[in-house]
# Entry
Amino acid sequence: MAMLMTYQRVEVITGSEKRRAYSVEDKARLVAEAFLPGVVASEVARRHGLNVSLLYRWRRQFEEQDAARSPEAPVSFVPVRIAADLSSAPQETSPSRPLAG
# Structure
């Protein structure tokens, strides 16, 4: 027994829609809006017709750019000893191990 299937609606996808292009200023404004304290990023994305993952990607890109621009960011950790009394702390003239450079 064969079943006949009929379609009530047909949608033709032509691919004529192009991706939207956002300026750096628009991206920065949307990221700043989405990640304010108390704001839900997915609501901001929905309001502007974006996927929330795009906001997170833009935020990560801005963070990477900021990290590349600030050379004073810490590169590595150094050992630290905390003494209860400064007079009882051992005095060292050189680090216990060489610093990575």
Remarks:
- The two ends are 79 Å apart (CA to CA).
